[in-house]
Amino acid sequence: MFKKSEIAMNNILLIQFAGLLHLGLIAAGALMPRTVGLRKHIATLPEFIRKLFWVYYAFIGLCLVSFGALSFFMAEDLATGEPLARAVCAFLAVFWTVRLVTAVFVFDLRPYLTTTLRKVGYQATNVAFGMLPLLYIYVAWKGGEA
């Protein structure tokens, strides 16, 4: 059997790994506008809508950076099993579950998956979208337990 400290250490490492997954998603998100020709597509929109889109895009990026930094640098606190730690992990699990469902059922990226590298990158992001809710659900459920 694992000792309580070993489980806590495993949970800390899982949360830090989740933090690193966020970095990968930030990198993928930074490549997306060029990959899909986003500037060309939104050029015909009214100026307000274009600006609104870029503001939303920046806020999503800020959320990913924040979630990743929080997970990586505050992993020990998130692994405690305290009510706030469980709540944050549960929120992140719900957030990433909704994002996974959106990736699978809302977005059709097939027209943009024109190279092997893009196909591999797309699958890698979906793996991250699948792993993040599992990691956060596990820690929210098991956090602080022996």
List the helices and strands and how they pair.
Blueprint: H1 4-36, H2 38-42, H3 47-73, H4 75-78, H5 83-105, H6 116-142
Helix pairs in contact: 1-3, 1-6, 5-6
Please state the structural category. mainly alpha
Q: What is the first-to-last residue Cα distance?
A: 9 Å
Sheet-strand content, in percent, reads under 5%
How large, in whole angstroms, is the Cα Rg? Answer: 18 Å
Largest sheet report: none
How many helical stretches?
6
Contiguous uncertain segments of 5+ residues: none
Average pLDDT value? 92
Summed up, the domain count is: 1
- Helical fraction equals over 70%
State the total count of DSSP E strands.
0
Shape: elongated
Topology pattern, helix = H, strand = E:
HHHHHH
Short description:
The protein is mainly alpha-helical. Helices cover 82% and strands 0% of the residues.
Walk me through this protein's architecture:
The protein has about 150 residues and is mostly helical. It has one domain (about 5-140). It has six helices and no strands. The chain is elongated. Helix 1 (about 5-35) packs antiparallel against helix 3 (about 45-75) and helix 1 packs antiparallel against helix 6. Helices cover about 80% and strands about 0% of the residues. The model has no long low-confidence stretch (mean pLDDT about 90). It starts with a helix and ends with a helix.
Which tags fit this structure?
single chain, 146 residues, 82% helix, elongated, mainly alpha
